[in-house]
Amino acid sequence: MTGIVFDIKEFAVHDGPGPRVTVFLKGCPLRCKWCHNPEGHSSEIELFWKKEKCTGCGLCRQDIEHELCKQLGRCWHHCASGALSISGQKWEAEALVERLLSYAPILNDCGGGITLSGGEPLFQPEFALEVLKRLTTVHRAIETSGYADETVFLRMLEVVDFVIMDIKLADSDVHRSYTGVRNEEILDNFARLKASHKPHLIRVPLIPQITDTEENLSAIARIVGDSPVELLEYNQLTPTKYAMLQKEFPLGEIAQPSKVDLSIFQNAKLLKL
Amino acid sequence: MLEELRSYILKKKHHAFRSPSGIDFAAEFAEKRLNPRARVAERFVRICEMEQPLLMPQERIVLTRTVTDPNAIFIKEEGEDRIDLPCIYTKEEWLQVKEKHFIHEAGWLSNVIPDYSLILEKGLLFFRKNADEYSCKMIDALIDLTDRYAMEAENQGKMDVVETLKKVPRYGATSFQEALQMIRIVNFAAWLEGNYHVTLGRFDVYCGPYLEKDLATGVLREEEALELLCDFFMALNKDTDLYYSIQRGDNGQSLTLGGVDAKGHPQFNMLSRLCLLASKELKVIDPKINIRVDKNTPVEVYELGSELTAVGLGFPQYTNDDTVIAGLLEKGYELEDARNYAIAACWEIIIPVVGTDIINVGALSFAKVIDRAFHEYLKKANSFEEFLKYVDLIIMEETEKILARIQNIWVIPSPFYGMFFPFEDVSKGGKYNNLGVHGTGIATAADSLAAIKKYVFEEKSISAEAYIEAVDADFVGYESLLAKLRYDSPKMGNDDDFVDDLAAHLMSSFADALEGKRSSRGGQIRAGTGSAMYYLWHPEEIGASPDGRRKGEGLGTNYSPSLYARCNGPFSIVKSFCKPELKRIINGGPLTLEFLSSMFENPEGIEKLALLVRTYIKLGGHQLQLNTVNRETLRDAQKHPERYPQLVVRIWGWSAYFVELDKRFQDHVIARTEYAL
Predict the structure, then answer these.
(1) Are B611 and A9 inside 8 Å of each other by CB?
(2) Under an 8 A CB cutoff, do A57 and B482 touch?
(3) C-alpha A196: how far from chain center
(4) Which tops the pLDDT comparison, B241 or B457?
């Protein structure tokens, strides 16, 4: 079984208990307008282009031999300036597991583990579940939007030790207008997560004037109850990644962040990124 | 804490009290044909006499240089270097000395650690009893100067300073404040005598008991102790622009914390903890902090260290007792001495009191070794194994060339500093007289070998002739090959045995080449992984290299991945760099990791960094340096230096104010940030 991965990040410090190795699976059913990982949207392999490094030599357009490069229309193998690279790599589940388990001694010694993230890891459900199932000797976490079929979500809960799940917007209509999907399925999955008693963490991205309003945060606080929450400050570098994929940043200008009152939550802290 | 004093020193207000000596000592001494000891003593005494007491606001640990000589020059091998002390030799005399002797760097005693325990216990009058006329004169001049400080302190009503100076430096210290003042006086005098890389050794071990006694008897509360310590740390920043160094900051004022005692028991104590706090509080570049750790060091020590790393000064640096002590034993150090090692200057491993090793006498450029093998032997070699044999031969040849230069070493005597070592004349050597040679550019070399092995001998996708042509053309016209070499070939730092085994081979071959060699002082030769200035000098000796490094591109600092290698991350880097047999390479030189400063915005980043450091130590790493960088800030600081007077960056083993560095150092720091983790 194969899946598409766009990054494996060693020593991730915000993706679960202890230092972690985080695997980013490519492809996501949501299109959050503030998304800081636009390379995670499409399930296809894409080209990354760093404009400031490009010398304009044009070699990437000549003598394209590789099958993948033909599809992309450019050959990154010719790019000596480091401007072109590809985002996305096909992995056999077995090979990925082998690579990830090579970290097990270090991760176990540090109290860390492996985290599957994305994109939306459950958007490649069979691949994600297969990898998680085989990672038996190391702590496993998942970072999910919660947007997944009930059966997939429940199967996932069987094979992870820790769940990090987003609740972005409490109102379903507003949720749809900013992420492209309604949130009922997400909230249902949250209820399943809570019922499972699996250790978890709820993440709320603080997007100025969109998710960081008092109304939205109070509503989320009511939904999550005593679950631990991390409020994520917005990362100002996000738009530069869109440029590398030659995409428009859908949110345009970002408004001034609101002052957030942590005390409306039972158990929340602020995370600066 | 001590904000007024800190700002006074950082704003260089004390510079207003400086004036030149105006004396041409060298001409005078040459005319009188004075012997070396006499010259050193005479200059010291006369400058002490000219020194004016200067007390700064809030300051309680006193002594500041006011006599300088901004026009003095010091003669090096090539060209001349400025120092801020008048010379004791004329240029002609010094060139004559250099004809007869190997002179290491500035020629003075450096990187050695005096017997601070004994100094603190006994005071200078104790040493005076057995001193010769020159040493006696110097002690007397120094005591006269501290007496004048006491008078000035009395005028200003700083009575605790007066009381302290009644005790030290004449007699032993009885309190923490006296101990700090004593160390400052000896440190001040050691620099003024002419020595450099005057380093502080195992500060927590020899000074800790004075702190603990004062805390136990209620003489000091912890906050008061911390304030005194901050005062002492600031004292180490007062004169640094006057010290002999390549760039300001490279002055070797390091102190070492933790480690074990002679029996192997852990030594991290209350003072060790306070030093980390004081440094975090002050955010100044001196003293550089080193922590000795081992596989059993509790995670709390790493957490305290990581809190300091997060401040962005580029220290603490960690050194692994498990690896270093084992390596020292193999080089013939006795167990008790090996357990007592300290870090001098940047990363130099030295035994306090008894070690007079000269640690940085030369460096083997691994990149040049490969360059030679590539050009001289690649076409001849029938197999990679054969090619590797040539590489080993060149390593042997090049190390022999380095060692052949080092005959008849002479060090300028130190009638003052030398008193605190249990030897007749420490400038002639002590108990351990080994030399150290570093190997630079290991990643560039290992990556090159891997590419040669893979493409020439295994895949046979490129001929030796074509490869040499491409490298000699600096890859112009060979862009696809360049792209493959840079971005799609095995790189050291990715936990890939294909290339890591070659790095391990190079390191062993280097250690083998030094094995059994003797220095002209009878010592052994230690292999190391420090790059110092060589990371800028060595690339100038060669063109492009077979790993895809283009002509003029730098080498990694110390022991680190190539500058443009795309590495998987810190776990892979740490695993790769622990594969060579590091106990054979204990001359110093850390694995250097750069982290984006955003990593430390949250406390959990700091806690998790502590665990990563512990992993490196448990895997048997030898030394680790962690830098925090922010490229945008550095770029902006190049454009608007006036806005960043206190921005600190780490260079190769020392920290510096970014805006005071030459541009080529600044550029290298910025290039490094590109690959931050």
Answers:
(1) no
(2) no
(3) 23
(4) B457
